[in-house]
Amino acid sequence: MRSMKIEVFLKQRSAEQCELCQATEDLQVYQVQPVDQLDVESCAYLCGTCRTQIDDPDLTEANHWRCLNDSMWSEVAAVKVLAWRMLTRLSAEGWPQALLDMMYLEDDQLTWAKATGEGQDHEQHTDCHGAKLSAGDTVTLVKDLKVKGGGFTAKQGTAVRNISLVPDNPGQIEGKVESQRIVILTEYVKKSH
Known about the structure:
Elements: H1 2-14, E1 28-31, E2 43-46, H2 48-55, H3 68-71, H4 77-89, H5 95-102, H6 107-114, E3 139-141, E4 145-147, E5 152-154, E6 159-160, E7 164-165, E8 172-177, E9 180-185, E10 189-191
Helix pairs in contact: 4-6
């Protein structure tokens, strides 16, 4: 009985449209995990396409989620949490990162959004072999890199000590080469052990 009341409320709240992409077909109540108790605040009204892609990352089609440009501004916490999770999952595409940078979630909403572990893989800095990089590590260049504005080439095999991680870009680190501080793509370094 309770789930019927939730569905009636969600139909009204959503104007019988998917709360993420505004589709009008195959709509169902979707519980946004983790859920302490089933209520309207922990649910969203979603279409089959959104539900399927949220639940199975392998089926994610980036262009479908351009709808988040609008739905990320929802006043509904469950919708904002889902929007954050999908934008985080797709952040490597470029445009979702720009939306994430504009998005604001209250602390409790952000904690809820991160509770499933979405995006944790994307936030890690890793070297060319997938080894996790941390601030203070030493790395070795795996190819010659022409330093723009520096007038020199950093040679393959050069050790870069005491690196810094670029906070908003897991594909970049900073370090000193020939006493000049430069940004280096993580795909061109190997962690020294």
